[in-house]
Amino acid sequence: MVPAANDPRWQRVLTSDSDLSAASLATKILVTRLRREARSDPSSISGKISELRAYFEKNAFAQADIAGF
After folding, report:
1. What was the pLDDT predicted at 69?
2. Residue 41 has what DSSP assignment?
3. What's the pLDDT at 67?
4. Is residue 13 within 8 Å of residue 69, measured between CB atoms?
5. Which of 55, 52, 25 lies closest to 37 in space, CA to CA?
6. How far is Cα 1 from Cα 4, in angstroms, rounded to an integer?
7. Which secondary structure element, helix H or strand E, spans residue 53, and what is its range?
8. Is residue 23 within 8 Å of 35, Cβ to Cβ?
9. Is 3 part of any domain?
């Protein structure tokens, strides 16, 4: 199950430098890009959270990566 958009884990994933080694390659690439974009424009964090959440809703294979966050 994908957490709600207002779940604090989403922001924590995008604002931290937590280890992504257990995540799938696609998840690593997406999170790394979204982190970089969120750092350069902190006001865009809500849009980045929406993009990340939509990725997990669309890709069932990646839902196992949520547990690592």
Report:
1. 79
2. -
3. 81
4. yes
5. 52
6. 9
7. helix 45-58
8. no
9. no
Q: By three-state DSSP, how is residue 25 classified? A: helix
- Tell me phi and psi for residue 60, to 5 degrees: -60, -35
Residue range 8-44, pLDDT digits in tens? 999 999 999 989 999 999 999 999 999 999 999 999 9
* Number of compact structural domains in the chain: 1
Tokens of 59: 């890709």
Closest C-alpha among 51, 62, 41 to residue 10: 51
**What's the token pair of residue 18?**
């937590």
Whether residue 2 is contained in a domain is answered as no
Supply 41's token pair: 């424009």
